[in-house]
């Protein structure tokens, strides 16, 4: 599948789902949101980006909580962005805006943002290395990026969880292992600062494809991802890494290299 096909597949799926009650139930985790807020290094008059904003869950909260910053939320799901824009106007939140983009190049000037938060979206990016280069471009020196995304366990050597995800046509690319993501960011001018872990659970409609996958997968891996089979659904629980990287400033880069 081409990069453009991946983006189009994700857009088609999430334009249907992002503003549904079921999606809000899965992703609307107040404790997780609060933990992410505690990571954010906020400075008045600075700009912050919610990358893959979805239904604006994080962007709305940031803008309300910190009225002296500017928050922008972007996503490929055009209809969902339009819904966010309507809600922003109805609630008259002046320091918040939403826009759609093409899923690849970020539509912003160099060094615009003091920080970027990407929650439950990075595994859909069709070219992660390019996206990190783009993050480096749009973040100011010493700015941060927070990636909050499910992980592949180190002992999942056959890529069970990616196979599981790909059975739903929503543009999934890859759940990273922690070391994989660290290497990608470090190679592109970031240093890792901190990380904490959380979990997220969700269900899928059961079918023969899932049964075949479970039948060929080790019981230890099914247990690791807490696979729960019911009559018509399967439930999975994944570990989520919440990791903060800092763009290396010029002075620190000169010292390091």
Summarize the structure.
This protein has 257 residues and is α/β, with parallel strands linked by helices. It has helices at residues 3-17, 21-27, 30-39, 57-65, 78-91, 128-138, 160-166, 178-187, 208-216, 219-224, 250-256, and strands spanning 47-51, 70-75, 96-100, 113-119, 139-150, 190-205, 228-229, 233-247.
The averaged pLDDT comes out at: 94
CATH class reads Alpha Beta
| Topology, number of strands | 8
CATH architecture: 3-Layer(aba) Sandwich
Q: Return the domain count.
A: 1
Q: What percent of residues adopt helix (DSSP H or I)?
A: 40-55%
User: Helix tally?
Assistant: 11
- Class from secondary-structure proportions: alpha/beta
Give helix and strand order, one letter per element, not per position. HHHEHEHEEHEHHEHHEEH
CATH superfamily membership: Vaccinia Virus protein VP39
Strand portion: 25-35%
- Global shape: globular
- CATH topology-level name: Rossmann fold
Our measurement of the CA-to-CA distance between the termini, rounded to an integer number of angstroms, reads 39 Å
Radius of gyration: 18 Å
Low-confidence stretches: 251-257
Oligomeric composition of the shown chains: single chain
């Amino acid at each position: 599948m081409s990069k453009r096909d991946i983006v189009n597949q994700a857009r088609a799926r999430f334009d249907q789902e992002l503003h549904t009650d079921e999606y809000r139930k899965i992703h609307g985790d107040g404790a997780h949101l609060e933990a992410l807020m505690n990571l954010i290094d906020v400075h008045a008059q600075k700009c912050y980006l919610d990358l893959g904003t979805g239904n604006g869950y994080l962007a709305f909260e940031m803008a309300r909580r910190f009225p002296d910053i500017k928050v922008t939320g972007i996503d490929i799901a055009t209809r969902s962005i339009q819904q966010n824009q309507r809600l922003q106007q109805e609630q008259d939140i002046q320091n918040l805006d939403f826009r759609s983009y093409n899923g690849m190049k970020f539509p912003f000037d160099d060094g615009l943002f003091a920080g970027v938060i990407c929650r439950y979206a990075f595994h859909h990016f069709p070219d992660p290395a390019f996206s990190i280069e783009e993050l480096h471009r749009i973040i100011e020196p010493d700015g941060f990026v927070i990636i909050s995304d499910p992980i592949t366990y180190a002992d999942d050597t056959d890529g069970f969880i990616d196979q599981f995800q790909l059975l739903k046509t929503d543009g999934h690319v890859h759940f990273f292992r922690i070391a994989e993501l660290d290497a990608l960011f470090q190679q592109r001018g970031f240093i890792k600062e901190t990380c904490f872990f959380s979990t997220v659970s969700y269900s899928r409609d059961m079918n023969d494809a899932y049964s075949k996958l479970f039948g060929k997968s080790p019981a230890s891996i099914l247990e690791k991802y807490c696979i729960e089979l019911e009559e018509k659904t399967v439930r999975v629980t994944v570990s989520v890494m919440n990791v903060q990287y800092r763009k290396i400033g010029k002075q620190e880069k000169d010292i390091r290299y």
